[in-house]
Amino acid sequence: MSAAVIEVADLDVYYGTSQILFGVGLSVRQGETMALLGRNGAGKSTTMKAIMGLAPPRRGKVSLRGVVISGRKPHAIARAGLGFVPEDRQIFPEHTVEDNLVIGKKRGPDGQDEWPIKRIYEVFPLLEPLRHRIAGRLSGGEQQMLAIARTLMGNPALLLLDEPSEGLAPIIVQRIGELLRQLRSIGSTVLIAEQNMHFCLGLASHATVIDKGQIVYAAGIDDLKANDTIRRRYLAL
Ligand SMILES: Nc1ncnc2c1ncn2[C@@H]1O[C@H](COP(=O)(O)OP(=O)(O)OP(=O)(O)O)[C@@H](O)[C@H]1O
Ligand SMILES: [Mg+2]
């Protein structure tokens, strides 16, 4: 078994005086696609923000390949090798598609340059003909692809995606799903927060389930598929 890329342990996060996360822990190994599943308000985005230093945990620890990164500022955490695509995607709407990609370019934590723009266009063939378009005029699905592509341009050791399927038409959700399966097949390490369990069942290798700010289940994806009780109790709408 390969080593953990990210190890999250015992995170407590508060917004003001209300506690949102209670001892959250999870880990993602090299090459895994981990789905962080849970209902609306369960704490998925907060977990991602805590990992990224955007909602600093009051207790607990996040390690990236054995090095503790919790306590650092968000930009330092990103530089250490975490690539985060937030719910609102945060592309630069006034810039072209290609400028958005170029802005995201940086070497990985070990100096990797695995995502030259040529490879980005091979993996995201829909973006190439749009390269001179203003990003703010793209459809929601195109913007989501651009946000993922731009983040990959930074050669992250771990890609974190918050609800990549949210608000997109079913056909586009399918496209994003194919893309994520492709990333898994080329060995990328990914953590996806999703309410949409069905979207994840076909592309994740593992699943962690969060409910009311606590981790209630973690297993391989086939185990979750076979576990009606967990799916019904924590993931049914
Ligand atoms: N800025 C904030 N201030 C106070 N409470 C917040 C804030 N952001 C989120 N919360 C609360 O924290 C809890 C967890 O929210 P979070 O956004 O992490 O859930 P989520 O699992 O990502 O949900 P969704 O599927 O709707 O994106 C919710 O009860 C939410 O109302
Ligand atoms: Mg969320």
From TrEMBL:
<keyword id="KW-0029">Amino-acid transport</keyword>
<comment type="similarity">
    <text>Belongs to the ABC transporter superfamily.</text>
</comment>
<dbReference type="InterPro" id="IPR052156">
    <property type="entry name" value="BCAA_Transport_ATP-bd_LivF"/>
</dbReference>
<comment type="function">
    <text>Involved in beta-(1--&gt;2)glucan export. Transmembrane domains (TMD) form a pore in the inner membrane and the ATP-binding domain (NBD) is responsible for energy generation.</text>
</comment>
<feature type="domain" description="ABC transporter">
    <location>
        <begin position="6"/>
        <end position="237"/>
    </location>
</feature>
<dbReference type="GO" id="GO:0015807">
    <property type="term" value="P:L-amino acid transport"/>
</dbReference>
<protein>
    <submittedName>
        <fullName>ABC transporter ATP-binding protein</fullName>
    </submittedName>
</protein>
<dbReference type="GO" id="GO:0015658">
    <property type="term" value="F:branched-chain amino acid transmembrane transporter activity"/>
</dbReference>
<keyword id="KW-0547">Nucleotide-binding</keyword>
<dbReference type="GO" id="GO:0016887">
    <property type="term" value="F:ATP hydrolysis activity"/>
</dbReference>
<dbReference type="InterPro" id="IPR003593">
    <property type="entry name" value="AAA+_ATPase"/>
</dbReference>
<dbReference type="InterPro" id="IPR003439">
    <property type="entry name" value="ABC_transporter-like_ATP-bd"/>
</dbReference>
<dbReference type="GO" id="GO:0005524">
    <property type="term" value="F:ATP binding"/>
</dbReference>
<dbReference type="InterPro" id="IPR017871">
    <property type="entry name" value="ABC_transporter-like_CS"/>
</dbReference>
<keyword id="KW-0067">ATP-binding</keyword>
<keyword id="KW-0813">Transport</keyword>
<dbReference type="Pfam" id="PF00005">
    <property type="entry name" value="ABC_tran"/>
</dbReference>
<dbReference type="InterPro" id="IPR027417">
    <property type="entry name" value="P-loop_NTPase"/>
</dbReference>
